[in-house]
Design a protein that fits this description.
The complex is a heterodimer of chains A (312) and B (249). Chain A is an alpha/beta fold and 312 residues long. Chain A is built from nine helices and 18 strands. Chain A has two domains: 164 residues, HUPs (Rossmann fold), CATH 3.40.50.620; 117 residues, 3-Layer(aba) Sandwich (Rossmann fold). In chain A, helix 3 packs across helix 4 and helix 6 runs parallel beside helix 9. The longest helix of chain A is centred in the C-terminal third of the chain and has 15 residues. Chain B has one domain: Rossmann fold (3-Layer(aba) Sandwich), CATH 3.40.50.620. In chain B, helix 2 crosses helix 5 and helix 3 packs across helix 4. Chain B is globular, with a radius of gyration of 21 Å. Chain B starts with a strand and ends in a 5-residue tail after the last helix. Classes of the chains: A alpha/beta (312), B alpha/beta (249). At the A-B interface, helix 3, helix 4, strand 7, strand 9 and strand 10 of A face helix 3, helix 4, strand 7, strand 8 and strand 9 of B. Strand 13 of chain A pairs antiparallel with strand 9 of chain B, so a sheet runs across the interface. Bound molecules: flavin-adenine dinucleotide. Flavin-adenine dinucleotide sits at the interface of chains A and B. Chain A: InterPro entries: DHS-like_NAD/FAD-binding_dom (IPR029035), ETF_a/b_N (IPR014730), ETF_a/FixB (IPR001308), ETF_alpha_N (IPR033947), ETF_asu_C (IPR014731), ETF_asu_C_CS (IPR018206), Rossmann-like_a/b/a_fold (IPR014729). Chain A: It comes from Komagataeibacter swingsii.
Chain lengths: 312, 249
């Protein structure tokens, strides 16, 4: 069996979540990968070095079309003939593209898998992770997105795959890419960070939210947020952790002024160690936290920094 | 111009779902049901476009059990003009729902189809993209801003590292993200009025769609429960525990 993995990359570097998707794919068969974009050639080079990858398909495109679901879905559907499974990490890009490709192939996609039972049977969370469903697909081909936090990524170096060019089709038209606005950050990526410090409504405003930065600096952490913090404009949407935001599972997750509603927990409850700081002893976050402090976060935050400086 | 808004009846987002004892699924009997929150946002966006004079008619559609009528009444109370119930007791999947919607789009010829980006029951996040694929029409998913101007729609989309803007020729498919708008509550007079708005009832067979699911549920289980840990008194104790006990810093 051969499996195709559609990779996410940033300026040629393959994202860690995609290496988790490759780890999942290699349980199903021989792995080929697809990279698209203006810097597909650089990405193809990185991808060829990933152990376990047999062949890299690169679709270089400088027209902006590789940013659109329509042509990329058409490409995946064209390539599908050679594969039993098509996978990608559950990123916003994959969620945009894969279901469309599935429709073109008359396949019901299987999103967000957390385990593989066999070539047809997969486990995926439903109801914001309140339940885990084991589902068996009757489709001849499977189209799957992979929850990266459930599969250890393969290494980035050591492989030696061949690289082949493929052409991005024009797609059905009618869709034009205008612009992408990426927020710049020096911090580790939220989804692959070892430590995440998240702030919620308890941070009160965007100015205060910045108070999390010195703590994050000390811990080498990424910064996350609850939806309430995003909705109120303390930080922008890409910080959101939860059912409809990012799913994270760091070694250490610190929740500051977050109540712990189920939709937030859906995005972080698989973290190894959870710390909650909240002034309300009844806050539901304490039901999942390994360590909690009941108190005012604005008092505790500077104390934490001081303790870290001391002990470190 | 005409807008079609599909809506789904799901367990209310404030209710904690319970897995059935026999592991066959999640209990819905006797549980409060509501419109999928993302679909409320989709309806709201359509209503706002109508209030701006861009849209002349809003058609709400639901595919599911007879009870989905309640959800359609809610959509009409929010401002949809009429509704279509495609009644089926078969478990719905994005693929089968997209096929039903495709048939309805071909019949009703809307210029815009606005859906919620995902249903909070199966968390699939697929129906809009699949409908767009089946129709061969442009898609603007995870929309946080929608701007309709002569013959096209500009959509600002939420992506992993920020946002992206695309321009789509009509007819187009849009899926709503949380930040697109804040949906209104239906007022009592509007709830009364909605009772008199037309609701057509058909079946998937009338549209020639086979609803047979492609995914069969082998089992549904509770996720491993996380145990509550301990409460500490000071930042010093926390740092010491993280360092020496949990060994994560
Ligand atoms: C369809 C849908 C999807 C959703 N998706 C998500 C999602 O992906 N992610 C997400 O996070 N939410 C999501 N939500 C929203 C979710 O239901 C909650 O509303 C949200 O998580 C609450 O955020 P919060 O905990 O920051 O705010 P609140 O619930 O307001 O909690 C703030 C907490 O801060 C504490 N606090 C206040 N001041 C202080 C202080 N000085 N010191 C210490 N503690 C303090 C309070 O005690 C309180 O517990 C979704 C909701 C819906 C309907």
């Amino acid at each position: 069996m051969a499996v195709l993995v559609y990779l996410d990359h940033e300026g040629g570097a393959i994202r860690q979540a995609s290496r988790s998707a490759i780890a999942a794919a290699s349980r199903l068969g021989d792995v080929d990968v697809l990279v698209t974009g203006p810097d597909a050639a650089a990405a193809a080079k990185s991808a060829a070095a990933i152990p376990g990858v047999k062949k890299v398909l690169q679709a270089t495109d400088t027209t902006g079309n590789s940013e659109l679901a329509e042509p990329v879905a058409a490409l995946l559907a064209d390539l599908a003939a050679g594969y039993t499974h098509i996978l990608a990490a559950s990123s916003a890009t994959a969620k945009n593209v894969l279901p469309r490709a599935a429709a073109l192939l008359d396949v019901q996609p299987i999103p967000d898998i957390v385990a593989i039972n066999d070539a047809d049977t997969f486990v995926r969370p439903i109801y914001a992770g309140s339940a885990l469903a084991t589902v068996k697909s009757a489709d001849a081909k499977k189209i799957i997105t992979v929850r990266a936090s459930s599969f250890d990524p393969v290494a980035g170096e050591g492989g030696n795959a061949t690289i082949e060019d493929v052409a991005l089709p024009a797609g059905p038209g009618g869709s034009t890419f205008i612009a992408t606005e990426l927020s710049k950050s020096e911090r580790p990526e939220l989804e692959s960070a070892r430590v995440v410090v998240s702030g919620g409504n308890g941070m009160l405003n965007g100015e205060n939210f910045k108070l999390l930065e010195p703590l994050a600096d000390r811990l080498g952490a990424a910064i996350g947020a609850s939806r309430a913090a995003v909705d109120k404009g303390f930080v922008s949407n890409e910080y959101q952790v939860g059912q409809t935001g990012k799913i994270v599972a760091p070694e250490l997750y610190i929740a500051m002024g977050i109540s712990g509603q189920i939709q937030h927990l859906a995005g972080m409850k698989d973290s190894k160690v959870i710390v909650a700081i909240n002034k309300d002893p009844e806050a539901p976050i304490f039901q999942v936290a390994d360590y909690g402090i009941v108190g005012d976060l604005f008092t505790i935050l500077p104390q934490l920094e001081a303790e870290l400086d001391k002990a470190g | 111009m005409k807008v079609l808004v599909p809506v789904k009846r799901v367990i209310d987002y404030n209710i904690k779902p319970r897995v059935k004892a026999d592991g066959s699924g999640v209990e819905t009997a006797g549980v409060k049901m509501s419109m999928n929150p993302f679909d409320e946002i989709a309806v709201e966006e359509a209503v706002r476009l109508k209030e701006k004079g861009v849209v002349s008619e809003i058609i709400a559609v639901s595919i599911g059990e007879a009870k989905a009528q309640d959800t359609l009444r809610t959509a009409m109370a929010m401002g949809a003009d009429r509704s279509i119930l495609v009644e089926t007791d078969v478990v719905t999947e994005p693929l089968s729902v997209a096929k039903v919607l495709k048939a309805l789009v071909e019949k009703e010829k809307p210029d815009l189809i606005i859906l919620g980006k995902q249903a909070i029951d199966d968390d699939m996040n697929a129906t809009g993209q699949m409908l767009a694929g089946l129709l061969g029409r442009p898609q603007g998913t995870f929309a946080s801003k929608v701007d309709v101007t002569d013959g096209s729609v500009t959509v600002m989309r939420e992506i992993d590292g920020g946002s992206q803007t695309v321009k789509l020729a009509l007819p187009a498919i849009i899926t709503a993200d949380l930040r697109l708008n804040e949906p209104r509550y239906a007022s009592l007079p509007n709830i009364m009025k909605a009772r008199k708005k037309p609701m057509e009832k058909i079946t998937p067979a009338d549209l020639g769609v086979d609803m047979t699911p492609r995914l069969s549920v082998v089992s549904v289980a509770e996720p491993p429960e996380r145990k509550a840990g301990i409460k500490l008194d000071s930042a010093a104790e926390l740092v010491s525990r993280l360092r020496n006990e949990a060994k994560v810093i």
